[in-house]
């Protein structure tokens, strides 16, 4: 029994380390040590759930692992004015815990398949995502110009000339300036051409892409 416990904990740590190494390499908030801790913790919670709950209620603690992970996942999601980051890392934390629960319950093959699939999604599909971005990339563009300049019409003119589709999200005005925030999308080369064209316009005082 003791050997089985050690094997399960080591397997959970192994799969957590494998996935965590990819997150660490990508410079994400939840890296190697974090995913290992989540894996070992979820695995041990599964043990405790079986031991404390017994045969009548073996999911007594395990059922609350997902709920508890919600608070941890929320800590790696960051929202700024233009975009949200960390959702993939949060989903990875959730998935790693599921794999470790499977290891803790003794389902080694299923856990290994799930871990390898998660790792494949994080690595192989990144290349596919890059290919998709070449065809149609989504960006948020913030432009600042003086109220006296006709910046809105100039933006529309450059968007059309670059072959980039746009949608005005927000428009803020103060005493001297106007700040426009656009949601734009199109082929990556078109967006790069648009940004270069915007930089050449003297009326735009600040560009954030």
Question: What does this protein look like?
Answer:
The protein is of the alpha+beta class and 209 residues long. The protein folds into two domains: 2-133, no CATH class; 136-208, Alpha-Beta Plaits (2-Layer Sandwich), CATH 3.30.70. It has seven helices and six strands, in the order H-H-H-E-E-H-H-E-H-E-E-H-E. The strands form two sheets. The protein has a four-stranded antiparallel sheet with strand order 4-5-3-6. It has a two-stranded antiparallel ribbon with strand order 1-2. Strand 1 and strand 2 (84-85) form a beta hairpin. Helix 3 (65-74) packs antiparallel against helix 4 (87-104). The radius of gyration is 24 Å and the shape is elongated.
Q: How much of the residues is beta strand, in percent?
A: 15-25%
Helix amount: 55-70%
Q: Count of DSSP E strands? A: 6
The residue ranges in which pLDDT falls below 50 over 5 or more consecutive positions are none
Total number of helices: 7
Structural class, please? alpha+beta
Largest sheet entry: 4 strands, antiparallel
Number of domains: 2
Per the principal axes of the C-alpha atoms, what is the gross shape?
Answer: elongated
SSE order, one letter for each helix or strand: HHHEEHHEHEEHE
Oligomeric state, counting identical vs distinct chains: single chain
Query: Taking Cα atoms only, what radius of gyration do you get, to the nearest Å?
Result: 24 Å
Q: End-to-end distance, in Å?
A: 57 Å
> If strands are numbered along the chain, what order do they take across the biggest sheet?
4-5-3-6
Report the average pLDDT across residues: 84
């Amino acid at each position: 029994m003791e050997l089985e416990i050690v094997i399960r904990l080591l397997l959970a740590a192994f799969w957590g380390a494998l996935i965590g190494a990819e997150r660490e390499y990508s410079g994400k908030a939840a890296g190697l040590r974090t995913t290992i801790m989540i894996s070992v913790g979820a695995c041990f919670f599964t043990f405790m759930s079986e031991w404390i709950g017994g045969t009548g209620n073996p999911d007594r603690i395990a059922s609350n692992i997902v709920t508890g992970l919600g608070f941890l996942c929320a800590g790696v999601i960051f929202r700024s004015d233009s975009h949200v980051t960390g959702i993939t890392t949060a989903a990875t934390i959730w998935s790693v815990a599921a794999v470790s629960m499977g290891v803790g319950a003794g389902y080694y093959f299923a856990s290994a398949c799930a871990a390898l699939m998660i790792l494949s999604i994080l690595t192989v599909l990144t290349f596919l995502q890059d290919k998709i971005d070449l065809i149609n990339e989504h960006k948020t563009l913030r432009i600042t110009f003086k109220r006296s300049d006709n910046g809105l019409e100039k933006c529309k003119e450059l968007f059309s000339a670059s072959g980039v589709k746009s949608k005005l999200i927000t428009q803020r005005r103060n005493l001297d300036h106007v700040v426009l925030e656009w949601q734009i999308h199109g082929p990556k080369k078109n967006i790069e051409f648009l940004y270069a064209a915007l930089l050449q316009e003297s009326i735009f005082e600040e560009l954030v892409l």
